[in-house]
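Fold sample X.
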Amino acid sequence: MSTKKAISTSFVAIFILIITQIIAQSIASMFVIIKIPTGICNIIAGIIYAGLTYLILKMFISKIIKLPTSDFGMPKFAIKIRWILIAVLLPFVIKGSYLLIFNGKYVSSNMNGNQMFNTLSAGVAFTGIAAGFVEEMVFRGVILNALKKRWNIKVAVIVPSMLFGIVHVLGQDFSIGSCLLVIIAGTMVGVMFSMIAIESGSVWNSGIVHAIWNVVIIGGGLAIGEKMDKYSIMTYVLNSKDFAITGGEFGIESSVISLFGYIIVAGIAFFMIKSRKTNRDLSSC
């Protein structure tokens, strides 16, 4: 793949992500106008977002790039048990660590039943599952493999991961310290997802880790941070104001505790890859 094609493919993938998100939210808004409950519309938006992104990416890869989607981390849908287990353990261990180790207080947003349903449906269906899988298809599917075909696996992992980190501070009015923390943590989580996708051979495995992380950490149920999150049903407000612990303005996703979790999981995936390569080399001797 040429340099021009690799870069243009990456930009097209990001463009598709943006367009499908706008389309999904616009269709959901139209359903709201005709009096369909907002919570149901959030679920519809999530289904449209993930489904439409997959269909357009599949058409783009097969018709324009003229390669099978499996070359871009999207083979037949299948998820390995070990990554489901890690998908569950990672966010719950990190969240549990905050609740058990750090002092704080629970603050309710005082939502009624309908508001809770709206919040959870958006957090689980759209921000959680749909966004998790869409971002994996784009970043660890199309972009990672396009750069890998043009350069090498190191470039393919590092560049999209840094881009993934930088994207999360665009348009945010964060302090310099918080921006640096977000970029470092965002880059490391990008490396983690990349290692999972490479080890498993598909974005469906990194997607399940990403989706469950989103649901548990930012899904609207219980938030953890230095101040109350009005978009969550309940917030555990930390007494600590140390931005390395709280994650600063972005939240605990960019904290050193989460960063430590990303490094451990990325390390597990890396050693799985190396172990498989070693076993393959030994068997060929």
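Fold sample Y, listed below.
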Amino acid sequence: MHYAYLGTTDLHVSRVGFGGMSLGADAAADRRLLDAARDGGITLFDTADLYEHGRNEELLGTTFRHCRTQVVLATKVGNQWRPDGQGWDWNPSGTYIRQAAEASLRRLQTDYLDLYQLHGGTIDDPLDEVVEAFERLQEQGKIRHYGISSIRPNVIRRNVPATGLSSVMLQLSLLDQRPLEAVLPLLAAHGVGVLARGALAQGLLAGKPAREYLGQPTETVQAAAAAVASVAKRLQRLPAEVAGRFVLDTPGVTAAVLGIRTAAQLAEVLQLARSAPLPPDARQELLQAAPANLYQEHR
């Protein structure tokens, strides 16, 4: 297993993280899967208060309460469930962030959150209020670091370097190279850690039938998937490993967070976590097969 510090923080995380969003079908099986991931060397576990109305956090809390110092728990805030449970609304107010942090601490059965992330964000958010809430939680020892989870360049630029955030979670894959244009260089220049999700492009780079993705036609998706399969065959690796390695090898990326639902998926992720970087010619082959795309909105 390979590890890295998240940006300039003291958070030492596995370079592959466990995305908890896909869990929830069988609590006992999910706990076994989480334990197996930790036994395999994964230390970074990402969730959100939004997932399963908080039950996802409860699952991680129950699983890791006896080994809390051995894991890095990252959760998110900002999407507030409506009283009737039918949908949610965006609420980045300082009052809500502080209240939601207390609720997440209870569900996760811990005294502190390693990483607390704003779960989205808009250019109209009350930034000073958001930062004050996070920094107050830091001063109280309830969170160690804070970040944002966003794919909006204008939101990311507004936060960096104006705030003390430690990380940005964004979407990155061979089929979504948008962060390479401007976001990743900005984050690297300011020492902000990057957690990348979506490395497999919803499975399209790991065997699922091709379809349109992020406005790219099916033919483009097919070409990218074929390149991944070709490189995988030549290097004797799995397609998922090659697609994930493309993300991990991207300069500035601290860790790839992958959704894991089954033991077979965990085995693939652990293989990725222990793999060597792609040879330069293999990465070039992948890039030639998938033209770079750019952010069209929220620039």
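Sample Y note: The radius of gyration is 19 Å.
Also: The mean pLDDT is 95.
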